[in-house]
Amino acid sequence: MTIFQPFFLTSAIPYVNSEPHLGHALELVQSDVLARYQRLRGFELRFTSGTDDNSLKNVRAADAAGTTPAELVARHGAGFRRLAEALHVAHDDFIHTASDARHAPAVHALWRRCAENGDVYKKSYRGLYCVGCEHFLRESEIVHGKCPVHPEPLELLEEENWFFRLSRYEPAILLAIQSNQLQILPAERRHEVLQFIPSGLSDFSISRSRVRAKGWGISVPGDETQVIYVWFDALANYLSVLGYPNEELFRRFWLDSAERWHIIGKDIVRFHAVYWPGILLSAGLPLPTSLRVHGFVTANGKKIGKSLGNTVDPFRLVARYGVDAVRYYLLSHLHTSKDSDFREDLLSTAYTAELAGKLGNLLQRVCALVERHDVVIATTNLEPELCEVARSAEARVADAIDEFALHDALGAIFELVAAANRYVDSRAPWQLAKSATNAAALERCLSTLVHALGVTARLLTPFLPSTARAIVARLEPRPHVGPPLFPALRRD
Ligand SMILES: [Zn+2]
Fold first, then answer.
1. What is the pLDDT of residue 139?
2. Nearest residue to 321 (alpha-carbon basis) of 485, 198, 431, 172
3. How many angstroms does the Cα of residue 257 sit away from the middle of ligand 1?
């Protein structure tokens, strides 16, 4: 790998009709891990996120709240930004599509490119529309008269709209996915897309009437009666955040980058795997190289959402358990790509039993022994058995991250921690310290443990950055005792 190749990585931009919930936290944290990991591998990384402000759902939420869409998206948008900060998600840029001056010109430029290539045309359309998806559903997608994902009733709409000629790009999109030029992980999501495409890609509406949108949104170039449909607008954020079409950032991180990854939820795979590549092909731009698709966070088996009345406030969790404990729980106890159920009792148990009980305790024991017996830490002549566990953990973590199985990566790291704890118990360094004849064995044992802790800290860096830093700070310049990494939780 050439050092400092550009690498562009994004999460999706959520619509902001309500405060952020735990599902948003999951996507932010997952994408942050991948960004930090690729940065550590030596890529020149650009990591962005933002908010989808121009959605019709925002207009309806503003109506319901008795405010304007502009006020609502500004207020909620700030909440999403705060959430990213609270979770230590280190974006390079964060775009609000309504207020960011870069967005509308980029959307217009993209529209014009597609129009110049003959892929934008006007026609009258009638169909059943799901406001949840912001999308007309096909007959075959409707289950018992409803969208399979959203509880709201479908709306029968008829209007004249601008359409994008997606049908023209069906063979090229299919080939890109089949050849893995556009990788989709996990395999079952790729499979679903490959099943869907040959059933026929219809052209799709990329505008709606300004009246229906209540004047909210970006005007269609040359047609003031229409605003640009939410998906064309929202997907374009991945270019506008780079200053498309003219900025150097766009050239570097979209045109010339080694990788372009989108981290998204399973409900928007089709828009990213089919519509977005279609638009990019029309505009003559490179496709994303990877879509990594996570599942939903559920609470008692139901998707979390304001409309479903079962939101979990991620800010409260961070305040109670700390950032890294919340990151740890989301990344290791929830399956990376399948739906998982959030349970606060399990977060609490993970904090006490795993973070404090295994990791924190190991660090404390090792540092205390080194300090008490004034042991000199060596970096050679270590015990091969535990070093082998550390080496294998490194390989497994790399594989698991590549496969978008972040829970497996953390599993491998905590197996190393468990092996180190067993090693302490079996070698009983406090016994070795009782006799001067065991000085070499004691030094070897504790040096091996310090090595294992060093590897643990390095592997944890993208997942739990503050904890990893705290471990390193405790081990250097030589191991010393300090306050617990994970203090006992207060009762309430
Ligand atoms: Zn829907």
1. 86
2. 485
3. 34
The side-by-side arrangement of strands in the sheet containing 207-209 is 207-209, 223-228, 219-220
State in Å: Cα 29 to ligand 1 middle. 25
CA distance 26 to 183: 21
Cβ neighbourhood burial of 473 (10 Å; 0-12, 13-18, 19+): exposed
Cα 54 to middle of ligand 1, angstroms: 17
- Please state, in angstroms and rounded to a whole number, the distance separating the CA atoms of residues 402 and 33: 12
* Other Cβ atoms within 10 Å of 309 Cβ, number: 8
List 293's β-bridge partners, or say none.
264
In angstroms, what is the span from residue 142 Cα to ligand 1's centroid? 9
| Ligand 1 centroid to residue 106 C-alpha, Å | 27
Residues whose CB is less than 8 angstroms from the CB of residue 191 and which lie 6 or more positions away in sequence, other chains included:
none
Tokens (6 digits) for 335: 């399956």
Output phi, psi for 44, to 5 deg: -85, 100
> What gap in Å lies between CA 353 and CA 210, rounded to an integer?
56
Nearest one of 94, 24, 159, 206 to 217, comparing CA atoms: 206
Ligand 1 mean position to 147 CA, how many Å?
5
Q: From edge to edge, which strands make up the β-sheet containing 204-205?
A: 135-137, 120-130, 155-164, 204-205
Q: What is the pTM of this model?
A: 0.94
Amino acid at residue number 74 = A
* Ligand 1 centroid to residue 151 C-alpha, Å: 8
Tokens of 255: 């045109």
Which residues are the active-site residues?
21, 24, 130, 133, 147, 150, 303, 306
CA distance 370 to 6: 43
Q: If the chain, 492 residues long, is cut into consecutive pieces of 10 residues, what is the mean pLDDT of each piece?
A: 83 91 95 98 97 91 94 96 98 97 98 98 91 84 90 89 97 98 98 96 92 93 94 97 97 98 97 98 98 91 66 92 98 97 95 98 98 96 98 98 98 98 97 96 98 98 98 97 95 72
